[in-house]
Amino acid sequence: MIQGGSVLLLLSMFFAYLLAPAVAEVSRRVRFGRRGRPVSRSAAIILLYAILFVPGAVAWRVSSDRIEQWVHVTAPDAVDHLFSGDDFEAIDRLIARPPVPGSLRSVLRRRVEGAAGYIQGQARTTLNTLIDAAPHAAWLAVAPVLAFLLLTGAPRFWRSTLRVLPRGHLQWRGEEYLQDVNSALAGYVRAQTAAGVIVGLMCISGFVLLDVPSAVSMGVAAGILELVPAIGPLTALLIAVTQAGDRALAVIAFLVALRIVQDMLVYPRLVRRGMHLSTPVVVLSIWTGAAMAGAGGVVLAIPVAGCVSVSLRHWREYRAIERLVRTSAHDVVAQQPDRPEHEGHHQAGREE
Predict the structure, then answer these.
(1) 47 CB-side CA count, 13 A
(2) How far is it, in rounded angstroms, from Cα 252 to Cα 201?
(3) CA-atom Rg of the chain in angstroms
(4) How far is Cα 241 from Cα 21, in angstroms, rounded to an integer?
(5) Which residue has the higher pLDDT, 340 or 334?
(6) Over 80: is that where the pLDDT of 104 sits?
(7) Residue whose C-alpha is closest to residue 282's, from 318, 254, 309, 321
(8) Which residues contact 142 (CB under 8 A, 6 or more apart)?
């Protein structure tokens, strides 16, 4: 329950950060009345929601039955067929061609079987996750509502939070802390969006080269699903497998290679630039989140790591300033007793 609520809150924040530039642009450009008054933030958000969700609701109404059929029937059948063993005869023939010792062929065969087993386990886990989450899909409607509240109420919350703190150093530190957390979360959204664009373009190019049906639409779907860590890429893999036909193994090899490059090279660089987290910290955070809470942990890992990093930095800076203030105060107090004695000598000199 806590994990699901946290993921839902994160999705709401992600949506709010993604929508914030558009809200500002609509508020600036759309005007009404004789005086050309700009629309309020609330009206701008409602207008954007109408533009986004009315077509989405119509598309869901038309395709919901096919999506349910794909989740419960098409995708499981495709996974069963792919990992039944018949499609791996081509790999066996490929391994048997090179003039290498039999022991090396056995090692290659075990490696291939291990990789296939891992992909199969992840695919089936993702399918089970999708099936289990299907009854709770209606809760996703809460995300736009929370995003609306965040976009309209964040400035007031910011001001009221700062007024609670004592004036002076703590209030200034609190404002800096909130700004840095906001910057870190915005950097996370930018990194995820950039990752989605990169994966979408790469998938479109790869699917076109592999002559996969509906290459463009599948590439666009892969880019959108990249916004949801862990579950999104595996869902894109399942979609590609169900559409690839006899090219399923080539598609899997392409997507696995893309996943390695994306997760180990591209995505850590995007997060490092947007959130100032090093590559080892990014990789370790994702692995820790996956080990502790599965797919939900992967979704929460990077934002939590960013907030923890900002908190630790501000705590260190706060302690450093407090030590500096205490040291300065101690030096001032230590110098106070010397002043009367010094003044007494001067007074005695003047009397003589």
Answers:
(1) 15
(2) 17
(3) 29
(4) 36
(5) 334
(6) no
(7) 309
(8) 8, 12
- ∠ CA 130-133-137, nearest 5°, is 115
Paired strand residues for 38: 31
DSSP label at 135? G
User: 31 has which bridge partners?
Assistant: 38
Least Cα distance to 252 among 112, 131, 130 occurs for: 112
Report helix, strand or coil for 37: strand
Please give the Cα distance from 290 to 231 (Å, whole number): 11
By the 8 A CB rule, do 195 and 270 touch? yes
The span from the CA of 350 to the CA of 338, in Å, is: 19
- Residue 37 β-bridge partners: 32
Sign of CA dihedral 270, 272, 275, 277: positive
Distance of alpha carbon 219 from alpha carbon 228, whole angstroms: 15
Q: Cα separation of 177 and 309, whole Å?
A: 11
**pLDDT per residue as tens digits for the range 164-204:** 777 776 777 788 888 888 888 888 888 888 999 999 999 99
- Helix intervals (H) in the chain: 2-29, 41-69, 75-82, 89-96, 102-133, 142-164, 169-209, 215-225, 231-244, 248-261, 267-275, 279-335, 338-351
Q: How many CB atoms lie within 10 A of CB 139?
A: 13
What is the rounded average pLDDT of the residues 265-282?
Answer: 82
Residue type, 107: V
Place of tokens 């207008």: 47
In this structure, the chain runs to a length of 352
Can you say whether residue 103 is alpha, beta or left, with left for phi > 0 and alpha for psi between -120 and 50 degrees? alpha
Note the pLDDT of residue 99: 67
The tens digit of pLDDT for each residue in 202-252 reads 999 999 998 888 888 888 888 888 877 766 787 788 778 777 777 777 888
